[in-house]
Amino acid sequence: MHSLTASSPRIPHSPTEKAPHTIRAGAITLNTSIYILVVDSLLEYSHKASSKMSDGILKPEKDYSDVLEVELSKLDELVKTDIQGAVERLLALEKQTRQSSDLASTEKLLVKIITIYKDAGDWKQMNEQVQLLSKKHGQLKQAIAMMVQEVIKFLDDAPNTETKVDTIENLRTVTEGKIFVEVERARVTRLLAKIKQDRGDIDAAAELMCDLQVETYGSMDNREKTEFILEQVQLCVTRGDFPQATVLSRKISTSYFDNPEVQDLRLRFYELMIQISLHDDKYLDVCKHYRAVYDTPSVKDDEFKWKDVLRSIVYFIILAPFDNEQSDLIHRIESDTRLQLLPMESELIKCFTLTELMRWPRIDEIYGGHLRKVAVFDVSDPKGEKRWDDLRKRVIEHNIRVVAKYYTRIHTSRLKTLLDLSDQETEAYLSRLVTQGTIYARINRPERIVTFDKPKDSNDVLNEWSSNISSLLGLVETLSHLISKEEMISAKA
To answer: How many structural domains does the chain have?
Structure first.
Protein backbone atom coordinates (compact mmCIF):
# COMPACT_ATOMS: atom_id res chain seq x y z
CA MET A 1 0.00 0.00 0.00
CA HIS A 2 1.55 3.31 -1.10
CA SER A 3 1.34 6.52 0.89
CA LEU A 4 0.65 9.91 -0.69
CA THR A 5 3.78 11.87 0.09
CA ALA A 6 4.20 14.18 -2.89
CA SER A 7 3.74 17.93 -2.67
CA SER A 8 0.47 19.58 -3.75
CA PRO A 9 -0.04 20.09 -7.53
CA ARG A 10 0.77 23.45 -8.98
CA ILE A 11 -2.04 25.43 -10.72
CA PRO A 12 -1.15 27.75 -13.67
CA HIS A 13 -1.13 31.44 -12.68
CA SER A 14 -1.83 32.82 -16.18
CA PRO A 15 -3.47 31.65 -19.43
CA THR A 16 -0.09 31.52 -21.16
CA GLU A 17 1.38 29.26 -18.53
CA LYS A 18 0.67 25.61 -19.29
CA ALA A 19 -0.46 23.21 -16.64
CA PRO A 20 1.68 20.12 -16.14
CA HIS A 21 0.52 17.07 -18.01
CA THR A 22 0.60 14.84 -14.96
CA ILE A 23 0.60 15.18 -11.19
CA ARG A 24 2.66 12.60 -9.34
CA ALA A 25 1.70 11.46 -5.84
CA GLY A 26 4.03 8.67 -4.75
CA ALA A 27 3.26 5.73 -7.02
CA ILE A 28 -0.08 7.24 -8.13
CA THR A 29 -0.25 9.44 -11.26
CA LEU A 30 -3.30 11.64 -12.01
CA ASN A 31 -4.04 13.21 -15.35
CA THR A 32 -4.51 16.95 -15.35
CA SER A 33 -8.01 16.58 -16.78
CA ILE A 34 -9.05 14.29 -13.91
CA TYR A 35 -7.65 16.72 -11.39
CA ILE A 36 -9.57 19.62 -12.93
CA LEU A 37 -12.75 17.51 -12.93
CA VAL A 38 -12.36 16.82 -9.19
CA VAL A 39 -11.84 20.51 -8.44
CA ASP A 40 -14.90 21.47 -10.51
CA SER A 41 -17.00 18.90 -8.65
CA LEU A 42 -15.93 20.31 -5.30
CA LEU A 43 -16.71 23.85 -6.41
CA GLU A 44 -20.13 22.77 -7.67
CA TYR A 45 -20.88 21.01 -4.36
CA SER A 46 -19.80 24.09 -2.44
CA HIS A 47 -21.99 26.30 -4.62
CA LYS A 48 -25.02 24.04 -4.06
CA ALA A 49 -24.45 23.96 -0.33
CA SER A 50 -24.16 27.73 -0.12
CA SER A 51 -27.25 28.20 -2.30
CA LYS A 52 -29.25 26.10 0.16
CA MET A 53 -28.28 28.37 3.05
CA SER A 54 -29.38 31.97 3.26
CA ASP A 55 -28.93 33.84 6.55
CA GLY A 56 -28.52 30.53 8.37
CA ILE A 57 -31.82 29.14 7.04
CA LEU A 58 -31.85 25.96 4.97
CA LYS A 59 -33.54 26.52 1.60
CA PRO A 60 -35.38 23.50 0.15
CA GLU A 61 -34.58 22.27 -3.32
CA LYS A 62 -38.30 21.67 -3.75
CA ASP A 63 -41.22 22.97 -1.72
CA TYR A 64 -43.68 20.21 -0.76
CA SER A 65 -46.04 22.40 1.28
CA ASP A 66 -48.84 22.28 -1.30
CA VAL A 67 -48.47 18.54 -1.85
CA LEU A 68 -48.38 18.01 1.89
CA GLU A 69 -51.59 19.92 2.45
CA VAL A 70 -53.46 17.75 -0.04
CA GLU A 71 -51.95 14.48 1.17
CA LEU A 72 -52.56 15.13 4.86
CA SER A 73 -56.23 15.86 4.27
CA LYS A 74 -56.55 12.48 2.52
CA LEU A 75 -54.55 10.63 5.15
CA ASP A 76 -56.73 11.93 7.99
CA GLU A 77 -59.52 9.72 6.66
CA LEU A 78 -57.21 6.76 6.04
CA VAL A 79 -55.86 6.86 9.63
CA LYS A 80 -59.32 5.99 10.95
CA THR A 81 -59.30 2.65 9.11
CA ASP A 82 -55.66 1.77 8.33
CA ILE A 83 -53.05 3.33 10.58
CA GLN A 84 -50.16 1.30 9.18
CA GLY A 85 -51.04 2.19 5.59
CA ALA A 86 -51.29 5.87 6.46
CA VAL A 87 -47.92 5.81 8.19
CA GLU A 88 -46.27 4.09 5.22
CA ARG A 89 -47.53 6.81 2.89
CA LEU A 90 -46.28 9.44 5.32
CA LEU A 91 -42.86 7.77 5.46
CA ALA A 92 -42.63 7.77 1.68
CA LEU A 93 -43.50 11.44 1.60
CA GLU A 94 -41.04 12.12 4.43
CA LYS A 95 -38.25 10.60 2.38
CA GLN A 96 -38.94 13.00 -0.48
CA THR A 97 -39.08 16.08 1.75
CA ARG A 98 -35.95 15.01 3.60
CA GLN A 99 -33.95 14.48 0.43
CA SER A 100 -35.15 17.84 -0.87
CA SER A 101 -34.17 19.53 2.42
CA ASP A 102 -37.71 20.83 2.91
CA LEU A 103 -37.46 21.49 6.65
CA ALA A 104 -40.98 22.79 7.27
CA SER A 105 -42.61 19.85 5.51
CA THR A 106 -40.30 17.31 7.15
CA GLU A 107 -41.10 18.68 10.60
CA LYS A 108 -44.84 18.41 9.93
CA LEU A 109 -44.51 14.83 8.72
CA LEU A 110 -42.41 13.68 11.69
CA VAL A 111 -44.83 15.27 14.14
CA LYS A 112 -47.78 13.78 12.26
CA ILE A 113 -46.34 10.25 12.35
CA ILE A 114 -45.69 10.22 16.10
CA THR A 115 -49.02 11.95 16.80
CA ILE A 116 -50.90 9.18 14.97
CA TYR A 117 -49.41 6.50 17.23
CA LYS A 118 -49.86 8.63 20.33
CA ASP A 119 -53.54 9.23 19.58
CA ALA A 120 -53.94 5.51 18.90
CA GLY A 121 -52.42 4.74 22.30
CA ASP A 122 -49.57 2.73 20.76
CA TRP A 123 -46.69 4.30 22.71
CA LYS A 124 -44.33 1.41 21.99
CA GLN A 125 -44.69 1.88 18.23
CA MET A 126 -44.34 5.64 18.66
CA ASN A 127 -41.01 5.16 20.46
CA GLU A 128 -39.81 2.85 17.69
CA GLN A 129 -40.71 5.41 15.04
CA VAL A 130 -38.85 8.13 16.97
CA GLN A 131 -35.77 5.91 16.91
CA LEU A 132 -36.08 5.11 13.21
CA LEU A 133 -36.85 8.64 12.05
CA SER A 134 -33.93 10.12 13.99
CA LYS A 135 -31.54 7.65 12.31
CA LYS A 136 -32.66 8.31 8.73
CA HIS A 137 -29.82 9.20 6.38
CA GLY A 138 -29.54 12.98 5.99
CA GLN A 139 -32.26 13.66 8.54
CA LEU A 140 -32.48 17.38 9.30
CA LYS A 141 -31.35 18.36 12.78
CA GLN A 142 -34.13 20.90 13.24
CA ALA A 143 -36.68 18.26 12.32
CA ILE A 144 -35.28 15.86 14.94
CA ALA A 145 -35.37 18.63 17.54
CA MET A 146 -38.99 19.42 16.69
CA MET A 147 -39.97 15.75 16.94
CA VAL A 148 -38.26 15.37 20.32
CA GLN A 149 -39.94 18.51 21.66
CA GLU A 150 -43.33 17.19 20.53
CA VAL A 151 -42.79 13.84 22.29
CA ILE A 152 -41.85 15.71 25.48
CA LYS A 153 -45.25 17.44 25.33
CA PHE A 154 -46.89 14.00 25.12
CA LEU A 155 -45.33 12.81 28.40
CA ASP A 156 -48.07 14.32 30.55
CA ASP A 157 -50.61 12.21 28.65
CA ALA A 158 -48.81 8.91 29.26
CA PRO A 159 -51.28 6.25 30.47
CA ASN A 160 -49.05 5.15 33.35
CA THR A 161 -45.67 5.82 34.95
CA GLU A 162 -43.96 2.84 33.30
CA THR A 163 -44.93 4.03 29.82
CA LYS A 164 -43.70 7.50 30.73
CA VAL A 165 -40.35 6.13 31.94
CA ASP A 166 -39.94 4.01 28.76
CA THR A 167 -40.63 7.06 26.60
CA ILE A 168 -38.15 9.17 28.55
CA GLU A 169 -35.48 6.48 28.28
CA ASN A 170 -36.14 6.30 24.53
CA LEU A 171 -35.72 10.08 24.23
CA ARG A 172 -32.47 9.93 26.20
CA THR A 173 -31.18 7.32 23.77
CA VAL A 174 -32.20 9.38 20.73
CA THR A 175 -30.68 12.60 22.07
CA GLU A 176 -27.45 11.07 23.36
CA GLY A 177 -24.41 12.76 21.84
CA LYS A 178 -26.46 15.29 19.87
CA ILE A 179 -25.58 18.85 20.84
CA PHE A 180 -28.58 20.36 19.05
CA VAL A 181 -30.96 18.57 21.46
CA GLU A 182 -28.84 18.77 24.62
CA VAL A 183 -31.38 20.99 26.37
CA GLU A 184 -34.21 18.57 25.60
CA ARG A 185 -32.09 15.69 26.90
CA ALA A 186 -31.46 17.60 30.13
CA ARG A 187 -35.16 18.27 30.60
CA VAL A 188 -36.27 14.67 30.15
CA THR A 189 -33.44 13.51 32.42
CA ARG A 190 -34.75 15.90 35.04
CA LEU A 191 -38.22 14.33 34.72
CA LEU A 192 -36.74 10.84 35.06
CA ALA A 193 -34.73 11.87 38.12
CA LYS A 194 -37.91 13.24 39.72
CA ILE A 195 -39.67 9.92 39.16
CA LYS A 196 -36.72 8.05 40.70
CA GLN A 197 -36.70 10.44 43.64
CA ASP A 198 -40.44 9.98 44.25
CA ARG A 199 -39.83 6.23 44.32
CA GLY A 200 -37.17 6.70 46.99
CA ASP A 201 -34.20 5.87 44.76
CA ILE A 202 -32.16 8.97 45.65
CA ASP A 203 -28.85 7.50 44.48
CA ALA A 204 -30.16 6.79 40.97
CA ALA A 205 -31.75 10.23 40.75
CA ALA A 206 -28.51 11.90 41.84
CA GLU A 207 -26.45 9.92 39.34
CA LEU A 208 -28.79 10.92 36.51
CA MET A 209 -28.72 14.60 37.38
CA CYS A 210 -25.00 14.84 38.13
CA ASP A 211 -24.16 13.42 34.69
CA LEU A 212 -25.53 16.62 33.14
CA GLN A 213 -23.00 19.41 32.59
CA VAL A 214 -25.66 22.08 32.08
CA GLU A 215 -23.23 24.93 32.76
CA THR A 216 -21.76 24.27 29.29
CA TYR A 217 -25.12 24.47 27.47
CA GLY A 218 -25.14 27.67 25.46
CA SER A 219 -28.78 27.32 24.38
CA MET A 220 -30.12 27.13 27.96
CA ASP A 221 -30.93 30.36 29.81
CA ASN A 222 -29.22 31.20 33.11
CA ARG A 223 -32.26 30.68 35.29
CA GLU A 224 -32.87 27.14 34.01
CA LYS A 225 -29.17 26.33 34.37
CA THR A 226 -29.24 27.53 37.97
CA GLU A 227 -32.35 25.48 38.72
CA PHE A 228 -30.67 22.36 37.32
CA ILE A 229 -27.53 22.87 39.40
CA LEU A 230 -29.56 23.57 42.55
CA GLU A 231 -31.41 20.28 42.04
CA GLN A 232 -28.07 18.51 41.62
CA VAL A 233 -26.85 20.02 44.89
CA GLN A 234 -30.12 19.15 46.64
CA LEU A 235 -29.91 15.49 45.60
CA CYS A 236 -26.28 15.25 46.73
CA VAL A 237 -27.19 16.77 50.10
CA THR A 238 -30.14 14.40 50.45
CA ARG A 239 -27.98 11.33 49.89
CA GLY A 240 -25.22 12.71 52.15
CA ASP A 241 -22.61 13.37 49.46
CA PHE A 242 -21.55 16.77 50.83
CA PRO A 243 -18.14 16.99 49.06
CA GLN A 244 -19.85 16.55 45.68
CA ALA A 245 -22.53 19.05 46.69
CA THR A 246 -19.82 21.59 47.52
CA VAL A 247 -18.15 21.09 44.13
CA LEU A 248 -21.44 21.51 42.27
CA SER A 249 -22.38 24.64 44.23
CA ARG A 250 -19.22 26.36 43.00
CA LYS A 251 -20.58 26.24 39.44
CA ILE A 252 -23.02 29.00 40.39
CA SER A 253 -21.74 32.58 40.48
CA THR A 254 -23.24 34.39 43.48
CA SER A 255 -23.22 37.64 41.50
CA TYR A 256 -26.11 36.19 39.48
CA PHE A 257 -28.31 36.46 42.57
CA ASP A 258 -27.96 40.24 42.58
CA ASN A 259 -30.78 40.21 40.04
CA PRO A 260 -34.01 40.97 41.98
CA GLU A 261 -35.95 38.63 39.68
CA VAL A 262 -34.21 35.52 41.04
CA GLN A 263 -34.77 36.00 44.76
CA ASP A 264 -36.39 32.57 45.02
CA LEU A 265 -33.27 30.92 43.57
CA ARG A 266 -31.06 33.01 45.87
CA LEU A 267 -32.91 31.75 48.93
CA ARG A 268 -32.79 28.12 47.69
CA PHE A 269 -29.06 28.38 47.04
CA TYR A 270 -28.16 29.79 50.45
CA GLU A 271 -30.46 27.34 52.20
CA LEU A 272 -28.47 24.50 50.63
CA MET A 273 -25.17 26.20 51.46
CA ILE A 274 -26.26 26.52 55.09
CA GLN A 275 -27.01 22.78 55.21
CA ILE A 276 -23.58 21.96 53.75
CA SER A 277 -21.74 24.29 56.14
CA LEU A 278 -23.69 23.00 59.16
CA HIS A 279 -22.70 19.44 58.28
CA ASP A 280 -19.03 20.47 58.40
CA ASP A 281 -19.54 22.71 61.50
CA LYS A 282 -18.23 25.75 59.60
CA TYR A 283 -19.99 28.31 61.76
CA LEU A 284 -18.44 31.37 60.15
CA ASP A 285 -19.58 30.22 56.70
CA VAL A 286 -23.07 29.56 58.07
CA CYS A 287 -23.15 33.10 59.43
CA LYS A 288 -22.10 34.53 56.04
CA HIS A 289 -24.82 32.55 54.26
CA TYR A 290 -27.44 33.77 56.73
CA ARG A 291 -26.25 37.33 56.13
CA ALA A 292 -26.79 36.81 52.39
CA VAL A 293 -30.33 35.61 53.18
CA TYR A 294 -30.79 38.61 55.50
CA ASP A 295 -29.82 40.99 52.66
CA THR A 296 -32.46 39.53 50.35
CA PRO A 297 -35.22 42.14 49.74
CA SER A 298 -38.06 39.66 50.27
CA VAL A 299 -36.64 38.78 53.71
CA LYS A 300 -35.91 42.38 54.72
CA ASP A 301 -39.51 43.34 54.04
CA ASP A 302 -40.90 40.58 56.28
CA GLU A 303 -40.35 41.33 59.98
CA PHE A 304 -40.92 37.75 61.09
CA LYS A 305 -38.39 36.42 58.57
CA TRP A 306 -35.59 38.93 59.18
CA LYS A 307 -35.85 38.58 62.95
CA ASP A 308 -35.49 34.81 62.71
CA VAL A 309 -32.53 35.14 60.31
CA LEU A 310 -30.84 37.82 62.43
CA ARG A 311 -31.05 35.58 65.50
CA SER A 312 -29.30 32.82 63.57
CA ILE A 313 -26.62 35.29 62.44
CA VAL A 314 -25.88 36.19 66.07
CA TYR A 315 -25.80 32.58 67.23
CA PHE A 316 -23.39 31.41 64.57
CA ILE A 317 -21.03 34.39 64.73
CA ILE A 318 -20.49 33.81 68.44
CA LEU A 319 -19.99 30.09 67.75
CA ALA A 320 -17.33 30.80 65.11
CA PRO A 321 -13.70 30.47 66.30
CA PHE A 322 -11.95 33.79 66.84
CA ASP A 323 -9.83 35.23 64.05
CA ASN A 324 -9.51 38.58 62.29
CA GLU A 325 -12.42 37.93 59.95
CA GLN A 326 -14.69 36.78 62.77
CA SER A 327 -13.73 39.79 64.91
CA ASP A 328 -14.49 42.23 62.09
CA LEU A 329 -17.80 40.55 61.24
CA ILE A 330 -19.07 40.40 64.82
CA HIS A 331 -18.51 44.15 65.26
CA ARG A 332 -20.36 44.88 62.01
CA ILE A 333 -23.27 42.70 63.12
CA GLU A 334 -23.40 44.45 66.49
CA SER A 335 -23.69 47.83 64.74
CA ASP A 336 -26.92 46.75 62.98
CA THR A 337 -29.67 49.03 64.33
CA ARG A 338 -32.31 46.31 63.92
CA LEU A 339 -30.50 44.20 66.48
CA GLN A 340 -31.90 46.48 69.19
CA LEU A 341 -35.31 44.92 68.53
CA LEU A 342 -33.86 41.60 69.72
CA PRO A 343 -32.73 42.52 73.27
CA MET A 344 -31.58 39.05 74.31
CA GLU A 345 -29.38 38.55 71.24
CA SER A 346 -28.14 42.15 71.41
CA GLU A 347 -26.90 41.70 74.98
CA LEU A 348 -25.36 38.33 74.16
CA ILE A 349 -23.30 39.58 71.20
CA LYS A 350 -22.18 42.60 73.26
CA CYS A 351 -20.60 40.23 75.78
CA PHE A 352 -18.30 38.97 73.03
CA THR A 353 -17.33 42.40 71.74
CA LEU A 354 -16.39 43.96 75.10
CA THR A 355 -12.96 43.20 76.59
CA GLU A 356 -14.51 42.05 79.84
CA LEU A 357 -14.73 38.66 81.51
CA MET A 358 -17.98 36.74 81.25
CA ARG A 359 -18.27 33.83 83.62
CA TRP A 360 -19.79 30.74 82.01
CA PRO A 361 -22.08 29.91 84.98
CA ARG A 362 -23.49 33.42 84.72
CA ILE A 363 -23.97 33.16 80.94
CA ASP A 364 -25.72 29.82 81.40
CA GLU A 365 -27.97 31.32 84.06
CA ILE A 366 -28.97 34.40 82.04
CA TYR A 367 -29.17 33.08 78.51
CA GLY A 368 -29.38 29.29 78.94
CA GLY A 369 -33.15 29.08 79.31
CA HIS A 370 -33.71 31.13 76.15
CA LEU A 371 -30.99 29.59 73.99
CA ARG A 372 -31.85 25.97 74.76
CA LYS A 373 -35.31 26.53 73.24
CA VAL A 374 -34.04 27.60 69.81
CA ALA A 375 -33.26 25.07 67.07
CA VAL A 376 -29.54 25.95 67.00
CA PHE A 377 -29.02 24.69 70.58
CA ASP A 378 -31.89 22.19 70.66
CA VAL A 379 -31.48 19.74 73.57
CA SER A 380 -32.97 16.82 71.62
CA ASP A 381 -30.54 17.24 68.71
CA PRO A 382 -26.98 15.84 69.05
CA LYS A 383 -25.76 18.72 66.89
CA GLY A 384 -27.51 21.12 69.27
CA GLU A 385 -25.65 19.62 72.23
CA LYS A 386 -22.36 19.97 70.37
CA ARG A 387 -23.07 23.64 69.58
CA TRP A 388 -23.90 24.32 73.22
CA ASP A 389 -20.55 22.83 74.19
CA ASP A 390 -18.87 24.92 71.47
CA LEU A 391 -20.51 28.04 72.92
CA ARG A 392 -18.95 27.26 76.28
CA LYS A 393 -15.55 26.91 74.55
CA ARG A 394 -15.97 30.30 72.84
CA VAL A 395 -16.78 31.93 76.20
CA ILE A 396 -13.69 30.41 77.82
CA GLU A 397 -11.48 31.40 74.88
CA HIS A 398 -12.83 34.96 75.06
CA ASN A 399 -12.00 35.10 78.76
CA ILE A 400 -8.44 33.88 78.15
CA ARG A 401 -7.91 36.60 75.53
CA VAL A 402 -9.18 39.22 78.02
CA VAL A 403 -6.83 37.92 80.72
CA ALA A 404 -3.92 37.92 78.26
CA LYS A 405 -4.65 41.56 77.46
CA TYR A 406 -4.73 42.79 81.07
CA TYR A 407 -2.13 40.51 82.67
CA THR A 408 1.54 39.96 81.93
CA ARG A 409 1.88 37.24 84.59
CA ILE A 410 -0.77 35.40 86.58
CA HIS A 411 -0.80 32.46 88.97
CA THR A 412 -2.59 29.37 87.66
CA SER A 413 -4.81 29.18 90.76
CA ARG A 414 -6.07 32.70 90.06
CA LEU A 415 -6.45 31.99 86.34
CA LYS A 416 -8.53 28.87 86.84
CA THR A 417 -10.76 30.79 89.24
CA LEU A 418 -11.38 33.47 86.64
CA LEU A 419 -12.10 30.85 83.98
CA ASP A 420 -14.13 28.52 86.22
CA LEU A 421 -12.00 25.58 85.09
CA SER A 422 -9.84 22.86 86.60
CA ASP A 423 -6.05 22.87 86.29
CA GLN A 424 -6.07 20.40 83.41
CA GLU A 425 -8.82 22.24 81.49
CA THR A 426 -7.06 25.57 82.00
CA GLU A 427 -3.81 24.22 80.58
CA ALA A 428 -5.63 22.52 77.68
CA TYR A 429 -7.42 25.72 76.62
CA LEU A 430 -4.25 27.78 76.99
CA SER A 431 -2.28 25.31 74.91
CA ARG A 432 -4.92 25.31 72.17
CA LEU A 433 -4.96 29.10 71.84
CA VAL A 434 -1.17 29.26 71.84
CA THR A 435 -0.99 26.60 69.14
CA GLN A 436 -3.54 28.50 67.03
CA GLY A 437 -1.47 31.67 67.39
CA THR A 438 -4.30 33.59 69.06
CA ILE A 439 -2.24 34.51 72.14
CA TYR A 440 1.31 34.16 73.45
CA ALA A 441 1.72 32.32 76.76
CA ARG A 442 4.32 30.30 78.66
CA ILE A 443 3.55 28.13 81.70
CA ASN A 444 6.11 27.76 84.47
CA ARG A 445 4.86 24.60 86.09
CA PRO A 446 7.19 24.51 89.14
CA GLU A 447 6.18 28.05 90.10
CA ARG A 448 2.66 27.68 88.65
CA ILE A 449 2.99 30.97 86.82
CA VAL A 450 1.56 31.80 83.38
CA THR A 451 3.40 34.52 81.46
CA PHE A 452 1.56 36.37 78.68
CA ASP A 453 4.26 38.97 78.00
CA LYS A 454 6.20 37.99 74.90
CA PRO A 455 9.98 38.40 75.41
CA LYS A 456 11.60 41.03 73.22
CA ASP A 457 15.01 40.87 71.61
CA SER A 458 17.41 43.80 71.49
CA ASN A 459 16.05 45.07 68.16
CA ASP A 460 12.48 45.13 69.46
CA VAL A 461 13.54 46.96 72.62
CA LEU A 462 15.54 49.50 70.62
CA ASN A 463 12.69 50.06 68.17
CA GLU A 464 10.23 50.55 71.02
CA TRP A 465 12.58 53.00 72.75
CA SER A 466 13.06 54.91 69.49
CA SER A 467 9.31 55.08 68.95
CA ASN A 468 8.74 56.32 72.50
CA ILE A 469 11.41 59.01 72.13
CA SER A 470 9.89 60.15 68.83
CA SER A 471 6.47 60.40 70.43
CA LEU A 472 7.94 62.32 73.39
CA LEU A 473 9.75 64.79 71.14
CA GLY A 474 6.56 65.29 69.15
CA LEU A 475 4.66 66.13 72.31
CA VAL A 476 7.40 68.54 73.45
CA GLU A 477 7.29 70.30 70.07
CA THR A 478 3.50 70.59 70.22
CA LEU A 479 3.75 71.98 73.76
CA SER A 480 6.37 74.52 72.63
CA HIS A 481 4.07 75.75 69.84
CA LEU A 482 1.16 76.11 72.25
CA ILE A 483 3.32 78.12 74.71
CA SER A 484 4.52 80.40 71.92
CA LYS A 485 0.91 80.91 70.79
CA GLU A 486 -0.19 81.89 74.31
CA GLU A 487 2.73 84.32 74.68
CA MET A 488 1.84 86.06 71.39
CA ILE A 489 -1.82 86.39 72.44
CA SER A 490 -0.78 87.83 75.84
CA ALA A 491 1.61 90.32 74.19
CA LYS A 492 -1.16 91.69 71.92
CA ALA A 493 -3.49 92.05 74.87
So the answer is: 3
